[in-house]
Specification:
By secondary structure, the chain is of the alpha/beta class. The chain is built from twelve helices and 13 strands. It is globular and about 70 Å long.
């Protein structure tokens, strides 16, 4: 009998009476095994990224009339070419590293991604993007479902969540992913040191090697503990990883360094989750000012991804790695205030980034036309928001089919394949 985490929490806690403290990550332990070679790194931009400040239609006069304070001057954008609708586009001026990767053909920018009747709620929006199910935002995560589909035997470290709590996108029916925010602190918990701590760890291994078949809740705990204890030494090797070049000191960059370390050490992890937040820029967005709010967001994103890209390239792992970004929604087209307080409110469609050594880079989809005509087909909500052109599930489908080796129709509960998405 399989026992889910939900069943364990409901009925199994009282059965767990071991006298030493179990590792905090026990309930987040992985039971899934992914592809042997290919790594997927899912990147969540928390708060709702302003795509019009990241990928800029710098020849659209309405971009400047609707954003007198926040628009990036045309002379400052990092030009990336013209999309299929003949709109000239450029990256935010702080994204110099991503521009290099784009020029190397290894960064795809998928414009106007979203879904019908897009939610402007942080919670609902992030749940929908995590589940790939606008009709049931409390469903299991789309990658959680992928992990559930993997055959046994499984590696308890096949997934790695670099945050302290399990993200919805990785929630599964009978699979968990360990929360390893800090490789140095991912260790057996004991108040003692030296010989006593070693003896306690050995005792924990012996105790948890017994899996009572007649008590499924207790068997789940012991089985999870046993798998957890088996991962400690492998994770410890990641803490010693010293990349070249060095990563920046931000939490985001350090998380990416741990991901690269896990790949380089070959500890078995193939699906990673990282995040960087602060994108809910209602006020004082400061797109252009050095050390301004959005400017710093772009700096954190750019510097972390560039270090990660170069590290993997140096280690010969770039071709085995795919990075996919998502955010719960885009922002309104028109800025909401004046002067330094100007920001943008919750909007609809946004842009997704796909990066990796096997990525066919470039501009995918078409940019919105920002004129205020209510009949403008690229906008919605009385021309206040960008409407979606590519269902975000079509991006997921391409990755599921062509990278993960899964069946996207089964995984996503529908056929969202789109032939024009050839980034991988």
């Amino acid at each position: 009998m399989k026992v889910t985490r939900r069943q364990f929490v409901k009925g199994g806690v009282a059965a767990f009476t071991v006298t030493f403290a179990a590792p905090e990550f026990l309930c987040d332990l992985a039971r899934a095994q992914g592809a042997h070679v290919r790594n997927l790194v899912v990147l969540y931009l928390g708060g709702g990224n302003d795509s019009l400040s990241m990928l800029i239609p710098y020849k659209d006069s309405f971009y400047y009339s609707r954003r007198p304070m926040l628009a990036v001057p045309a002379a400052n954008v990092l030009q990336v070419g013209t999309d299929s609708s003949n709109v000239q586009l450029g990256l935010h001026p702080r994204l110099t590293g991503l521009k290099q990767i784009f020029d190397q053909g290894r960064l795809a920018l998928v414009q106007r991604t979203g879904y019908p009747n897009q939610s402007r709620s942080h919670f609902t929006g992030s749940d929908i993007w995590s589940t790939a199910n606008p009709n049931n935002s409390q469903a299991l995560g789309w990658l959680g479902r992928y992990l559930d589909s993997l055959p046994s035997p499984v590696d308890p470290l096949v997934g790695w969540n670099t945050t302290g709590s399990l993200p919805h996108v990785l929630q599964a029916g009978h699979v968990a992913v360990p929360a390893i925010a800090n490789t140095s602190s991912y260790a057996f918990s004991s108040p003692n040191t030296g010989v006593e701590a070693t003896a306690e760890k050995a005792a924990a291994v012996r105790i948890n090697s017994h899996v009572p078949v007649d008590r499924p809740e207790l068997a789940f705990v012991y089985g999870s503990s046993q798998a957890a204890l088996a991962t400690l030494d492998r994770v410890a090797t990641v803490a010693s990883y010293r990349p070249s070049p060095a990563y920046p000191g931000s939490g985001f960059s350090q998380a990416l360094q741990a991901v690269a370390g896990a790949m380089t050490k070959g500890i078995g992890t193939k699906v990673f989750y990282v995040t960087t937040g602060g994108f809910d820029t209602h006020s004082a967005q400061n797109v252009n000012a050095t050390n301004g709010s959005y400017y710093n967001l772009m700096a954190t994103l750019n510097d972390g991804l560039l270090a990660f890209y170069n590290d993997l390239k140096n280690q010969g792992l770039l071709d085995d790695t795919l990075v996919l970004s998502f955010s719960e929604f885009g922002r309104r087209i028109s800025e909401n205030g004046t002067g330094a307080n100007a920001g943008t409110d919750h909007g609809a469609a946004s842009v997704m980034l796909v990066m990796g050594g096997k990525v066919e880079g470039g501009l995918y989809g078409t940019a919105p036309v920002l004129n205020t005509d209510p009949k403008n087909p690229t906008l919605e909500n009385n021309a206040n928001d960008v409407t979606f052109e590519t269902d975000f599930r079509s991006v997921y489908a391409r990755i599921a089919d062509n990278w993960l080796g899964a069946n996207s129709v089964q995984l996503l509960g529908g056929d969202f394949r789109k032939s024009s998405l050839t980034f991988i």
